[in-house]
């Protein structure tokens, strides 16, 4: 069974222990961690700022965030911007360099910060806003209270360690006293403030920007701000200097979200029709920066590749299209692709995506009936994917568990009942109706013949 998100309060309470595990193992932020109790798994949330981020430790001095130890001095303030010396009560982060997925790059003045998506910035209107919701219309706040323009905001993967510190374990008050830090010239939150934000604390929530915010990378964000956020702010081949230009850091690499883009040829087979895919873009989605969804997709492509290595697998996370594809390139290479919109659709979790990926592989291995391109027809791919491919990938009872859960999710996705009743009609080689596809999955798992509606 896949890892599920547990309650925010439980995860917040378990954060310290979980994050120690993350630190020891070198796991990136967002990595799913199985807990020991009945409340279920959580995720690593230990770090928010990339290694090398300068944090003001005294009136004139800055120190890289990962170099702070418990008991060290650091300057902190609240909404009043009364800076005073505080002691570091918590300091933790990932060990060494890891690939941090969904890192937000905030560019301002001649500087930049690399942060995790939920890292909170203190804006010039004295409200907090997570990095993933920042736009060029927002203004950061300098340590002396002056507004600072944001030049651009970007999202992608970043090779670096990540770290965070806390000045107090006390619950933040309405003034956020001693929980704001000077991070490379702009004010943002300490770790304790982040914890209470994730726990949905009412006091912290009252300080969160109440504007109608959308997350970077989503269709709504791209429609208003364009797709520059998916590209790199750095010149090709530019050697990145870590924030503040600290010299003792390893050179990080930023991989913009657009690097995952894959062009789908016109003769590719899609999981659903393009018309249906456009409609489904309007349906509920998980957040663009949701780490669990991306872990499911990355895991599944690795899992299926172990059994079907003769295929090139693509996870196009930055594309909001709700679809998946199979095709053969001109050099006779088999391809399958999962688009980000499909991966993030709220109806689908790991098992549902497993059914989709099996369907796309079945276009290559399902045999006749087939399209002129020799890719198997849609109904045949539905049947062969669950009947043969999933049986091969998932051993014994895990096949039944995964397939049954996946069929239930697919029924929700298509908006039909999860029943094996076969409807009438036939779609030929094209996409069968949703009810037929569910009936086909049930027939496959029960080793019955392919329904006529899928023929």
Q: What can be said about this structure in brief?
A:
The protein has 455 residues and is an alpha+beta fold. The chain has helices at residues 8-25, 191-198, 202-205, 219-225, 274-280, 291-307, 340-344, 350-365, 378-393, 397-414, 434-445; strands spanning 32-33, 42-43, 49-50, 54-56, 62-64, 73-76, 84-87, 90-93, 98-108, 111-115, 120-122, 128-130, 139-141, 147-160, 162-166, 180-183, 186-189, 253-256, 269-270, 311-316, 324-328, 334-339. The longest helix has 18 residues, at 8-25.
Question: Can you give keywords for this protein?
Answer:
455 residues; alpha+beta; Endonuclease - Pi-scei, Chain A, domain 1; 5-stranded antiparallel beta sheet; disordered N terminus
Describe this structure in words.
By secondary structure, the protein is of the alpha+beta class. It has three domains: 8-44, no CATH class; 49-255, Hedgehog/Intein (Hint) domain (Endonuclease - Pi-scei, Chain A, domain 1, Beta Complex), CATH 2.170.16.10; 261-454, no CATH class. The protein contains eleven helices and 22 strands. The protein has helices at residues 8-25, 191-198, 202-205, 219-225, 274-280, 291-307, 340-344, 350-365, 378-393, 397-414, 434-445; strands at residues 32-33, 42-43, 49-50, 54-56, 62-64, 73-76, 84-87, 90-93, 98-108, 111-115, 120-122, 128-130, 139-141, 147-160, 162-166, 180-183, 186-189, 253-256, 269-270, 311-316, 324-328, 334-339. Strands 9, 10, 13, 14 and 18 form a five-stranded antiparallel sheet that branches. Strands 19-21-22-20 form a four-stranded mixed sheet. It has a three-stranded antiparallel sheet with strand order 3-15-8, with helices on one face. β16 and β17 (186-189) form a beta hairpin.
